[in-house]
Structure formats: structure tokens, C-alpha cells
């Protein structure tokens, strides 16, 4: 009788004792979870936000997420055919690179893709983000801002002045160009003008079912983002 893959022991001898114990517990938990659910989906997270991820976890409380610690997840499920916990799981673990995670669920492919394909949460861009579009500020008065903010706007590089106690943008100003890496000042300007350039979203990459079948998903839909916008 062939030896079960579930009997495999994992060596983590290069890890300190406490770290080893913690990682071993995670490995055991992942394997226990794999036994409880029919499907495992791999996913990538874009513009990571802890608040949104927490909300998704709550909404999908019937399922289980593992995010981060890619190497530990790979070891738990198997990096090669010889190591894999169940058939074809080594194909799944190859996708665990960067901001990726695992969704263990009894929900089917159709329901999972429908939910996550429509999940785009606008948020303010952070420093270091690549600008998704060119943003221009239109010339004119800015009555929505208190006059006391005018020095701050000038420090951010905006061509402003006070006109009868109201801030005026003296000429059109390009905050950023598409493809440019945003700096803190640009992000601050975008936030002051209420322009949410980033989208938090999760892309489903692949699906493993407890029948041993592995499937990848390519060309997932993305939101339409105009190349250039003007903000008043």
C-alpha cells in the first residue's frame, strides 16, 4: 500500500525554536483547513488595505483566508510533486509570489469569480504608487478650502494666492502624469482635492478542487480608468 502524502514530515531545522514552532502550527492549520473545504483559490491583492481585507474576511466568514508567509504556505501544501499534501497542490503553490494568498471555501467557481471580479474599492493613492492617470487641476477659485490652507497649498507646489479671502489657483496645474511614481506631496494634493486614484481589489488567479483538479484564470477584468482627468 503506497504511503499517504499526508504522513510527510516537514523539516524547518534552520529556524529558531519559537519561530519553528509557530511555522509548524501554521503548516498544520493550513493542512487541517485543506481537509475541511472543497476548493482552494489563489488570489493576488492590489493596493493592499487592511481595513478592506478585514471586511472581506467578515463577509466570507463561512470560508477561510490565509495571507502572507508565502514560503510557509508553499511548504504546507507542497512545493513539488513529491512534497505536495494532495494531488496537484504543487501547481497551486507556484502562484504564491508577492502579495498573494489562499481562500479555502465550499463556494464554487462561479460565485467566487462573480464576487471578486466586482470588488473594487476606491482609495487615496500612497507615496510610491504608480499614477494610474494624469490629473490636472483647473484654474480658478477654490471656495471649498479655508483661506488658512493657502500657505500649505503653496508649499505643496500649487500656484495659489488669496483673492478677497478666497484661495485662487492662478493657472491650471498638472498634479501627476500617468505612469509616474507619486511622491508624498502629490498624494497629499490628490487627497485634499478628494481624488481617489487607487483601487483596492483582489484578483483570483487559480482554483484547486478536492478532486485534484487545478485550473488557472487568465485575463481577469479590470476597472476602466481614464488616462486623463481634470479636477475642479
Automatic annotation (TrEMBL):
- Where does it primarily localize? cytoplasm
UniProt GO cellular component terms: cytoplasm; nucleolus; preribosome, large subunit precursor
State its location(s).
Cytoplasm; Nucleus, Nucleolus
Q: Where is the Large ribosomal subunit protein uL10-like insertion domain?
A: 125-194
Q: Could you tell me which Gene3D superfamilies the record lists for this protein?
A: 3.30.70.1730, 3.90.105.20
What's a BP term from Gene Ontology annotated to this protein?
nuclear-transcribed mRNA catabolic process
> Per UniProt, which keywords does this protein have?
Cytoplasm, Nucleus, Ribosome biogenesis
- List GO molecular-function terms, semicolon-separated: RNA binding
The organism's superkingdom is given as Eukaryota
Which CDD domains does the record match to this protein?
A: Ribosomal_P0_like
Assigned protein family: Belongs to the universal ribosomal protein uL10 family.
Q: What does this protein do?
A: Component of the ribosome assembly machinery. Nuclear paralog of the ribosomal protein P0, it binds pre-60S subunits at an early stage of assembly in the nucleolus, and is replaced by P0 in cytoplasmic pre-60S subunits and mature 80S ribosomes.
Quaternary structure, per UniProt, is: Associates with the pre-60S ribosomal particle.
Q: What is this protein called?
A: Ribosome assembly factor mrt4
Q: Which organism is it from?
A: Candidula unifasciata
The top of its lineage is: Eukaryota, Metazoa, Spiralia, Lophotrochozoa, Mollusca
Amino acid at each position: 500500500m503506497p504511503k499517504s502524502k499526508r504522513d510527510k514530515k516537514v523539516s524547518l531545522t534552520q529556524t529558531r525554536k519559537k519561530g519553528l514552532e509557530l511555522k509548524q502550527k501554521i503548516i498544520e492549520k493550513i493542512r487541517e483547513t485543506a481537509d475541511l473545504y472543497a476548493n482552494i483559490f489563489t488570489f493576488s491583492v492590489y493596493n493592499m488595505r487592511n481595513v478592506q481585507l478585514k471586511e472581506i474576511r467578515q463577509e466570507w466568514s463561512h470560508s477561510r483566508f490565509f495571507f502572507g508567509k508565502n514560503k510557509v504556505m508553499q511548504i504546507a501544501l507542497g512545493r513539488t510533486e513529491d512534497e505536495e499534501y494532495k494531488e496537484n497542490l504543487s501547481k497551486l503553490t507556484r502562484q504564491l509570489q508577492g502579495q498573494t494568498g489562499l481562500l479555502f471555501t465550499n463556494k464554487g467557481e462561479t460565485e467566487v469569480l462573480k464576487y471578486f471580479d466586482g470588488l473594487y474599492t476606491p482609495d487615496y493613492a500612497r507615496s510610491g504608487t504608480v499614477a494610474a492617470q494624469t490629473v490636472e487641476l483647473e484654474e480658478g477659485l477654490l471656495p471649498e478650502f479655508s483661506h488658512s490652507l493657502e500657505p500649505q497649498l503653496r508649499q505643496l507646489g500649487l500656484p495659489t494666492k488669496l483673492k478677497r479671502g478666497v484661495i485662487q489657483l492662478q493657472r491650471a496645474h498638472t498634479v501627476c502624469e500617468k505612469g509616474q511614481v507619486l511622491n508624498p506631496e502629490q498624494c497629499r494634493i490628490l487627497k485634499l482635492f478628494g481624488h481617489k486614484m487607487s483601487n483596492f481589489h483582489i484578483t483570483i488567479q487559480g482554483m484547486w478542487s478536492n478532486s485534484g483538479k487545478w485550473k488557472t484564470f487568465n485575463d481577469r477584468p479590470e476597472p476602466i480608468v481614464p488616462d486623463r482627468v481634470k479636477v475642479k
